[in-house]
Amino acid sequence: MKIILAQPRGFCAGVVRAVETVEQALELYGAPVYVRHEIVHNQHVVDSLRRKGALFVEELDEVPANALVIFSAHGVARVVEDQARQRHLRVLDATCPLVSKVHNQGRQYAARGYRLILIGEPGHPEVLGTLGQIPAQVTVLLTVAQVEALEFAADTPLAYITQTTLSVDDTRQVVAALRRRYPQIVGPDTRDICYAVQNRQVAVRALSACVDLVLVVGSQKSANSVTLRDIAGESGIPSYLIADGRALRREWFDQRPTVGITAGASTPESMIDDVLAALARIAPLDITSLPGPEEQVQFRLPAGLIARQ
Ligand code: SF4
């Protein structure tokens, strides 16, 4: 079986920072360390941190007073920050700086009197956090049809911001539809879709052009992994989103000798190794990698950790 790996793939700088935040907090402060929500959307990462002493909770009232709590890479609403202060919790904020940037933009637009539209998936933790960071009414939408159904008067001062992990192409179409209906609308184009998400989408498109089938390694909960699977599927070849090697089905590979592999931004490289090991049990592998950009982005750890180093 010929295997072609996408480049880049897997962990982004925001996920590396979030995972390191939990690991270093455990090292510096000792277990238990509480983490609000899955630190990143990957069960293997969560399980590995749990084994090291992290305790995952959904809400802060599950955290004892004075304990250390880490906010996940997706960001949190202001009300959660306030609750942590009221309960005297010690906080390390692992919100990805690119998500914080969207929060800031939203607040600035709101302060300047714009009515805000957030292009994003309703209910996604990042979207909930962003909504809760902006002290104004925000309309969430995801599709061109939803743009067509908007009922703002034509001269409403409008601005939009975007979730960081969307499909660049789909978002471009939504932005174009917004601009058609409301030419005065302001916003950041698709630049706020994060560099790592964009790079992985470009890479999976190139990969899909030269393989018979694509495997995306990642969680069903991971928005950017789902998008990678969808982009590969648009090329007309089968594409599967799998958590690890156990999810493989031998029949997928009948008459499909060339397999492309990529991974979402919250998937560790060890999960790709796991998938390769499972594939090697089906057929001998010839593994190559497509050329692609080497990402150099790094984010500083949260202030509370830097101070202790
Ligand atoms: Fe940050 Fe992008 Fe990674 Fe999300 S995918 S954590 S926005 S670097």
What does this structure look like?
This protein has 309 residues and is α/β, with parallel strands linked by helices. It has 3 domains: 2-11 and 195-289, 4-hydroxy-3-methylbut-2-enyl diphosphate reductase, catalytic domain (Cobalt-precorrin-4 Transmethylase, domain 1); 13-96, Rossmann fold, CATH 3.40.50; 98-192, 4-hydroxy-3-methylbut-2-enyl diphosphate reductase, catalytic domain (Cobalt-precorrin-4 Transmethylase, domain 1). The protein contains 11 helices and 12 strands. It has helices spanning 13-29, 43-52, 78-86, 97-111, 125-131, 144-148, 168-181, 195-208, 223-234, 269-280, 303-306, and strands at residues 2-5, 33-36, 54-57, 68-71, 90-93, 115-119, 138-141, 158-162, 213-217, 239-242, 258-263, 286-289. The strands form 3 sheets. The chain has a 5-stranded parallel beta sheet with strand order 10-9-11-1-12. The chain has a 4-stranded parallel beta sheet with strand order 3-2-4-5. A 3-stranded parallel beta sheet has the order 7-6-8, sandwiched between helices. Strand 4 (68-71), helix 3 (78-86) and strand 5 (90-93) form a beta-alpha-beta unit. The longest helix is centred in the N-terminal third of the chain and has 17 residues, at 13-29. The chain is flat, with a radius of gyration of 21 Å. The termini are far apart. 42% of the residues are buried. The mean pLDDT is 95. The structure holds iron/sulfur cluster (SF4). The site of iron/sulfur cluster has 15 residues, from helix 1, helix 4 and helix 8. One of its GO terms (biological process) is terpenoid biosynthetic process. Its cofactor is [4Fe-4S] cluster. Belongs to the IspH family. This is 4-hydroxy-3-methylbut-2-enyl diphosphate reductase.
